[in-house]
Design goal:
The protein is of the alpha/beta class and 260 residues long. It has helices spanning 8-15, 21-33, 52-58, 69-82, 121-130, 150-164, 176-183, 204-212, 215-218, 222-240, and strands at 40-44, 61-66, 90-93, 106-112, 132-144, 189-202, 247-259. The chain has ten helices and seven strands. The protein has a seven-stranded mixed sheet, sandwiched between helices. The longest helix has 19 residues, at 222-240.
């Protein structure tokens, strides 16, 4: 069972992208690859389809892969509510390090905020390259907020708190720059594209609520979760003045497009 099964029902409530952003990601990806829209795309770590739904709606030859049955079930439920002539997404529960597809099967492989939580991230990228056709593109996607914003500062502080509590707070997978450095010598072309920009209101309370539903945090023993959130809330009040103090911050969705 995947850790994400336990948080699938709450995932979209706290991590949905603004309206129009998923479609902008799709458009930016195809444009950066220089390929005709409608091609064969594998969404590796598709989750509940917060990005993939735009590919499905546009009629691309889209396949979603995720190790979590719960996340894929939410994707299917959301698609079913669209009704009418909306196509149903092709969903596959599988380990991304051993994909059930032949080589050169896809024009593009998309990984959105997957690598940071993947301890076997090199194997994941190697397998993604295997199923890409020659001149196909591997696309890494990530939502980025300001480095001194509420989320970034609270994320850093909760790591300190978890370390103090004896919990392993080290990243499980690769940070963006680490993945880029690994891919750069292999890629014929690597391009950074900003697919979308928006302003978002962030509060410390929002972070506390959202972080409590994160797959890795939710897998910790309950006493550690409770104590970490209590300490983080106290720190946030001291730092920001109140848990509900809103800050309007710039956010962007960035794609690293690698063509081999």
């Amino acid at each position: 069972m995947s850790h994400f099964d336990a948080v699938a029902d709450d995932f979209d409530r706290f991590r949905a992208l603004p309206a129009g952003v998923p479609a902008a990601i799709r458009d930016a990806m195809w444009e950066a690859l220089g390929l005709a829209r409608g091609g064969r795309v594998l969404d590796l770590g598709a989750g509940t389809g917060r990005v993939g739904a735009a590919f499905v709606a546009a009629g691309d030859a889209y396949i979603a892969v995720d190790p979590s049955a719960g996340m894929l079930a939410r994707f299917a439920e959301k698609a079913a509510t669209q009704g009418g002539s909306a196509p149903s997404p092709a969903l596959v529960q599988a380990d991304g390090r051993a994909l059930p597809f032949p080589g050169s099967a896809f024009d593009a492989v998309l990984l959105v905020q997957v690598l940071s939580g993947a301890p076997g991230w090199r194997s994941l990228l190697t397998e993604a390259r295997r199923v890409l056709r020659p001149d196909g593109g591997l696309v890494l996607g990530k939502a980025i907020g300001p480095p001194e914003g509420v989320d970034a500062r609270m994320r850093a502080q909760v790591s300190v708190i978890l370390a103090e509590l004896g919990a392993d707070a080290r990243p499980r997978g690769a940070q963006r720059e680490e993945a880029r450095a690994w891919l750069a010598p292999l890629a014929r072309r690597m391009t950074e594209v900003t697919a979308a920009r928006w302003q978002a209101a962030r509060t410390p309370r929002d972070f506390l609520t959202r972080h409590a539903t994160g797959a890795r945090f939710a897998a910790l023993p309950r006493p550690i979760q409770d104590e970490a959130l209590r300490r983080l809330a106290d720190w946030a009040v001291t730092t920001f003045g109140a848990l509900d103090a809103p800050l309007i911050e710039p956010h962007a969705f960035v794609l690293d497009v690698c063509v081999f």
